[in-house]
Amino acid sequence: MKATWNGAIIAQSDDTVVVDGNHYFPESSLNREYITFSNHKTSSSSKGQASYYSLIVKGEMNPDAAWFYPEPKDDADIVKGRVAFWKEVKIEP
């Protein structure tokens, strides 16, 4: 699977996990040159607290476009060490 935005490959891996319709990519598959810090956080009753990354490609920013669970709840351990995307990030084979 491949995650792309603004013409750039943000992540690519044959090892994604689908949870709630979202592909979670291994953190090691991220193209770090496009990833930047975000202090945004949300909570999920089933997975725990999510942290976010923003994307910067070709001088354009896509704020909070990737999320991950640094310490997921026990029942959501499958997403530990993985990152999912939204906000116009295309996920395709």
Helix amount, in percent?
A: under 10%
> Biggest β-sheet: count, sense, barrel?
6 strands, antiparallel
Radius of gyration: 12 Å
Approximate strand percentage: over 45%
The topology string of helices and strands comes to EEEEEEEEE
Strand order of the largest sheet: 3-4-8-7-6-5
* Multimeric organization: single chain
Question: What's the shape?
Answer: globular
Structural class: mainly beta
What are its keywords?
93 residues, mainly beta, six-stranded antiparallel β-sheet, three-stranded antiparallel β-sheet, 9 strands, 0% helix, globular
What's the SSE blueprint?
Layout: E1 2-5, E2 8-12, E3 17-19, E4 22-26, E5 35-44, E6 48-57, E7 60-68, E8 82-85, E9 90-92
Antiparallel strand pairs: 1-2, 1-9, 3-4, 4-8, 5-6, 6-7, 7-8
Structure in words:
- The chain is mainly beta and 93 residues long.
- Helix content is 0%, strand content 57%.
- It has a six-stranded antiparallel beta sheet, with no helix packed on it. It has a three-stranded antiparallel beta sheet with strand order 2-1-9, with no helix packed on it.
- A hairpin with a 2-residue loop joins strand 6 and strand 7.
- It is globular and about 40 Å long.
